[in-house]
Amino acid sequence: MNSEKTDWASVLGQTARKPFFWGIVAIVVLLGINLVKDPSFLAISYNANTGYLSGNVLDILRAAAPIMLIAVGMTLVVATAGIDLSVGSVMVASGAVAMQFLAGVNTPGSAGAALGAVLLALAVGAAMGLLSGVLVAYVGLQPFITTLVMMMAGRGLAKVITGGNNTKASNDAFSWIANGRVLGFPVVFVIAVVVVVLVALVIRWTALGMMIEAIGINANAARMAGIKPRGLLVTVYTVSGLLAAGAGMMSVASVMTVDVSQTGNGLEMDAILALVVGGTSLAGGKFHIGGSVVGALMITTLDKTVKFLGIASSATPAFKAAVIIILCLLQSERVRNLLLRRRRDKSTVAAPIAVATPKESVTA
Amino acid sequence: MSAVAVHPGTTGTSAWDSIKRFLDAKAMLLPTFAALVIFVGMLVYGQAEYGLLVSGGSMQWGTISNLLLNNAHMIILAVGMTFVILTGGIDLSVGAVIAFSSLAGVMLTNAGLNGWLAMIVMVLVGTLFGLFSGVLIQYFNFQPFIATLATMFLARGLASMLSTDPQRVDADSPIKLVSADIKLIDGPKVNDLIVTPGVLAAILVVALGFWVLHRTRTGRTVYAIGGSETSAALMGLPVVRTKLFIYTMSGTMAGLAGLVYTAELGKAQNITGTGWELDAIAATVIGGTLLTGAFGYVLGSVVGALVLGLMTVLITRNGAIPSEWTTIITGAILLVFVLLQRAITLRRK
């Protein structure tokens, strides 16, 4: 690191090599497209009566919050070479528990009831995550199939809890989670940022992150190096369940209704997409929490853009596919070689060595 | 491959010994066998409780016909998925490919294209999507999960761009012929044993799948890739060609399943097939195929698909179980089967 001469070019060069660089580029491009369509897209207006800020950007931040939470949980699970397909179902199950509790409790409007609902929902999420974790770590089932079972069971559980109805409830304190503001920002986004920062700090300041990566790279070697994979695996799945429960409450709180077939439906794929954008490999090992947050923001910006351009929102998956394909193509060896060769052909006289040097350093 | 472990300390009758030896040698057949037992058990239970097979002294052919008719598409999907999973891969795109191919086919016929051509288009659309996934995986180093996730999003999004309204199949369209009833046995009242060309296609697919997997070099290469892709490549097996083949084939099966399902239902919609990839994976796993690859049978997956189908029938017949429980019970059955597989793989070690 030659920190002495941090000119713009080298800063840019370093950022460009970060895995989530292209995710940021995608966000900028998408915002640019929106600006072309409507120059006032980024404007944030201030309502003097309520003290609320409002605008498209704040909408994006609010929509991104639940995806940020599940994407971060998913990142940790994937880092251990696992996968958590159950996050969407955990969302609907915990949301259903919260709504059913609020609808049935004696004092449905009180803050105490809201607190009870929150705790109950978190407990359900943690329990489902714990169960997945135990099945993966102690029984030795594959994460894919374990969380697939949990995915089926979770949505069924939500239907059983609500009796198949879309339970409604009203509680100001609970709905504040989704609709309130802190310093003008949506509460959900603030909560998501705080949680993500907390998780990131705990993971990176302690050896937890390194141990999780070690499990993902080679579970056997990690065990021989004195890491206990089982406890860590259970922890990671439980955390993912907890975060999904948080995301579930966010998504039911905004309308104070749990939609047993739609809440959290397919969001596990969005979370996986977010971490692919963020540069975390599904094969396990190295993970990037910041990248996953960028990925979550990119997905919601994409959703918003598609809606803003007047395209049917059911067509959004096609654009997500385009993003995945382009990003992964940019990372693939074959395309990189192709691009490098073209550059080499152009600058055969200049410096062929410069082409060969930017190889990533290999750490054993 | 077979590790025959004879335990010298075992006591008991010689019959028990030979059963034990057989189980040790063929331990990986056990989950498939268990699936078969459960299937037969469900049939027996259904018979005892609701007269599913024989009622009032006459065969209930209708039950069997419906089971085949309602699950033909899932059987076709499960065969394709078995090949993919045997190599250690996964195909998440099949459900979405069904939506796109059926929608595209129906819209083309409604726009005036010859119905027979449209049917070919429906299957070939699947082939193209499968080939696309295969190329991404094989030439651009995508992980199968990511590549087929991308194909899934692509197909679902494109289907929604085609139309978000259900598209009806014309009553006199040749597509309808795929679901035309062929009466094999004329039972009393409506209890005829009926098959459709769709069901026949499913049976043909199963037979072809079985033949390719167990009787050809391609089939052996599929198992070899699942065991170790590197070893397979070092042995000089055509790994690239085979992997391209299996993803293309899985896509083709999705196209065919789309055709069969659309003909049966009489309409195509952009949300058709949501989550079917997971059902197909579940059927494959219940049928005894290991998700890590290299162990599994086509016929097992067929049994798996039928177990899932029969379960829906039983739950519907039993009015006492609320329909909300269906997914929980499916999940529980799946869990039981993977636990069984786990126990067997542990014993082999």
From TrEMBL, chain A:
Main location group: membrane
PANTHER family: ABC TRANSPORTER PERMEASE PROTEIN YPHD-RELATED-RELATED, GALACTOFURANOSE TRANSPORTER PERMEASE PROTEIN YTFT
Membrane topology listed for this record: Multi-pass membrane protein
Lineage: Bacteria, Bacillati, Actinomycetota, Actinomycetes, Propionibacteriales
Any one Pfam family match given in the protein's UniProt record, by short name: BPD_transp_2
The keyword Transport belongs to this UniProt entry's keyword annotation: yes
Protein name stated in the entry: Simple sugar transport system permease protein
InterPro entries the UniProt entry points to: ABC_transp_permease
Organism: Brooklawnia cerclae
Localization terms from the record: Cell membrane
TrEMBL record, chain B:
A matching Pfam family: BPD_transp_2
Residues annotated as transmembrane: 28-48, 68-86, 93-110, 116-137, 193-213, 281-313, 325-344
InterPro entries the record matches: ABC_transp_permease
Organism ancestry: Bacteria, Bacillati, Actinomycetota, Actinomycetes, Propionibacteriales
Protein's name according to its UniProt entry: Simple sugar transport system permease protein
Keywords attached to this entry: Cell membrane, Membrane, Sugar transport, Transmembrane, Transmembrane helix, Transport
PANTHER family cross-referenced by the UniProt entry: ABC TRANSPORTER PERMEASE PROTEIN YPHD-RELATED-RELATED, INNER MEMBRANE ABC TRANSPORTER PERMEASE PROTEIN YJFF
Topology term for the membrane: Multi-pass membrane protein
Localization (cell): Cell membrane
